[in-house]
Amino acid sequence: MVPLFLWPKGWYKECCWSVKKPMIPQKIPLLTIAELSGEEAGRLRDRCSALAQKLPPPTQRAEELRYYSSPGRTELGGNHTDHNRGCVLAAAVDLDMLAAVRPRDDTRVTLTSEGYDPLSLDIADTLPRQDERGSPASIIRGLAGWLSRRQVPRPKGFDIAVDSEVPAGSGLSSSAAFELLMAAVFDDLGGYGFSPVEWAIAGQFAENEYFGKPCGLMDQIACAVGGIVSIDFGTSEGPTIETVAYDFSAHGMVLAIVDTGSNHEDLTGEYAAIPQEMKSVAALFGEKTLRRVTERKLLSRAPEVRAQCGDRAFLRAWHFVHETRRPEQMRAALLRNDMPTYLSLVRESGRSSWMYLQNIHAGEPRSQSLAVALALSEDLLGEEGAWRVHGGGFAGTIQAYIPETKFQAYLERMETVFGKGSVRRLNIRPYGVSRMRVQ
Predict the structure, then answer these.
(1) Paired residues of 75 in beta bridges
(2) Structural domains of the chain, ranges and CATH numbers in brackets
(3) 151: left (phi over 0), alpha (psi -120 to 50) or beta
(4) Could you tell me the pTM of the whole model?
(5) Cα separations (Å) of 435 from 28, 271, 438?
(6) Cα(394)–Cα(389) distance, rounded to whole angstroms?
(7) Could you read off the pLDDT of 408-431 as tens digits, one per residue?
């Protein structure tokens, strides 16, 4: 069994954190669709209407339907640093999961979602189940389990239908989007009033303990808070979160991902090896994570690290000690609107992931689509843009920053190689997980 990564004991129960700006929501917000732009509002209404038709007929008294939205996320900097208490820069995007929910009078949850088998479970039973690991049921039960540890009233059951624009295995963190979507339902129906960041920690708990993936906390916080967030996981009290207001499109730059035609849904073992190897290096220095291991310390014991942990572990630690510095440098560049420096840092991050972290491919020589996409991006964009592996890596997507004047040429090149629709423009979504009022 893969060892599970956990934050320090007590985080799940008490959950403290530092917030440097007042833009971090303290409760999951309620948004009225009419407040959104006309085109977006119309599309959301259509999706809500279609979802309502997918819910099963009420088995008890009928209640008014409720709607919720949770965004996907894009990692901007800090590739594979969060699980070793490093720093990251991430953002919510305008691709979301939308849900229609009908409350129930019992403790059963039923889920209908296109592309997945319908499921039904009783959340009164909060014990992890081996046969549910890796499934949506494990996340739902895990969130109920988190609530039971908080010693709050038992959560209510509900019927839920989900429509997802966040492709699974794409690097946009469909798992975190789903976790926060379910969290919003639990919070609203139970009247708990937990903050989005608390629910982000609950989502990580469910993914670690029930789903079986040793993820960090970056994805969940980005989906919970919205906008661009700078997160420092190094403080003992919890993550320090700052928000950054920036619109890439307003500065002539397209933020996009390229779907290379593979996904990382079955690569949990490859993903889990990264924090394991980093922590094996940290252990040689008497640390649980690499947070306090500096470049100088790493160099001073390089022969020992190589002998005890292996060369790949040394290189992954080398990636960490440099990569964890970049998010703050990137944030500072955005604040002063210094796009050349920002793009240079993105390219550095991409090179480090490719050369040292080695999360570009999983060892199959005939299947290295991420590397091909990165090479083609570098050739076309040069210093005018940037490119890097997106998210967990090994398969799925790359991220690119493309000058608007070059976007059409970039689109044509990538779609020729990876297929029509493989390039997707992203916009930063200024709000995170939310309850949506249709009227």
Answers:
(1) 90
(2) 18-243+430-437 (3.30.230.10), 249-426 (3.30.70.890)
(3) left
(4) 0.86
(5) 7, 32, 10
(6) 9
(7) 999 999 999 999 999 999 999 999
